[in-house]
């Protein structure tokens, strides 16, 4: 599968504005390149979720058609993260408008929501993304709400201890240090 560079991610958003309808959250590893972080890691997929509505399958397929139009595989669209958007009750209030056109609005996670969406899995690449995200938020003056992040970190630590996952515990400690 082709990686999604900053330029490809931006072309993707432009194309999505012409093809997709409704309110959508674009999240995951593609967000940092979309925001101009030239040092962000390349990602292989773009996470999308309907924001505040139950999107029919035909709406989800428009994302895959958009990927295909840009010579990306349809599986470059990852809708699995929608589970966490729903479970965490991420709403428009937790997001920032990324782009809009007639009949469509694309959002990205706000400062806190980005971290909350990364924590359930929290791989090495998620840690690297979060470290870059925290630096970006500080530079841009975006405030990360400590309470929700602290509660999510506590849940993640409990999961890691229950599984005996020393690697996850170590990554969580690094994130806590990055948050200050």
**How many β strands by DSSP?**
5
Which runs of at least 5 residues are low in confidence (pLDDT < 50)? Answer: none
What would you report as the Rg, rounded to the nearest angstrom? 16 Å
Gross geometry: globular
Describe the strand arrangement of the main beta sheet, using strand numbers: 3-2-1-5-4
Structural class by SSE content: alpha/beta
Listing every helix as H and every strand as E from the N terminus to the C terminus, the arrangement reads: HEHEHEHEEHHHH
Indicate the multimeric state: single chain
The largest β sheet comes out as:
5 strands, mixed
Mean pLDDT: 94
Describe the protein in words.
- The chain has 180 residues and is an alpha/beta fold.
- Helices cover 52% and strands 14% of the residues.
- It contains eight helices and five strands, in the order αβαβαβαββαααα.
- A five-stranded mixed sheet has the order 3-2-1-5-4.
- Strand 2, helix 3 and strand 3 (77-78) form a beta-alpha-beta unit.
- The longest helix has 18 residues, at 146-163.
Features:
52% helix, 14% strand, single chain, 180 residues, alpha/beta, globular, 5 strands, 8 helices, 5-stranded mixed beta sheet
How are the SSEs ordered, and which strands pair?
Layout: H1 6-19, E1 22-27, H2 31-34, E2 46-50, H3 57-69, E3 77-78, H4 82-87, E4 95-101, E5 104-109, H5 111-118, H6 124-140, H7 146-163, H8 166-179
Short description:
The protein has 180 residues and is of the alpha/beta class.
């Amino acid at each position: 599968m082709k990686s999604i560079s900053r330029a490809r991610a931006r072309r993707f958003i432009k194309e999505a504005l012409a093809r997709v309808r409704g309110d959508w959250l674009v999240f995951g590893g593609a967000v940092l390149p979309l925001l101009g972080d030239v040092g962000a890691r390349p990602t292989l997929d773009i996470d999308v979720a309907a924001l505040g509505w139950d999107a029919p399958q035909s709406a989800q397929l428009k994302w895959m058609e958009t990927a295909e139009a840009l010579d990306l595989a349809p599986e470059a669209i990852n809708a699995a993260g929608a589970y966490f958007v729903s479970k965490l009750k991420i709403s428009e209030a937790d997001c920032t408008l990324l782009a809009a056109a007639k009949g469509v609005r694309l959002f990205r996670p706000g400062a806190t929501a980005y971290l909350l969406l990364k924590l359930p899995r929290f791989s090495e690449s998620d840690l690297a993304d979060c470290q870059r995200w925290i630096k970006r938020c500080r530079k841009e003056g975006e405030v990360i709400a400590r309470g929700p992040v602290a509660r999510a970190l506590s849940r993640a630590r409990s999961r890691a201890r229950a599984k005996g996952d020393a690697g996850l515990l170590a990554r969580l400690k690094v994130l806590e240090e990055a948050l200050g």
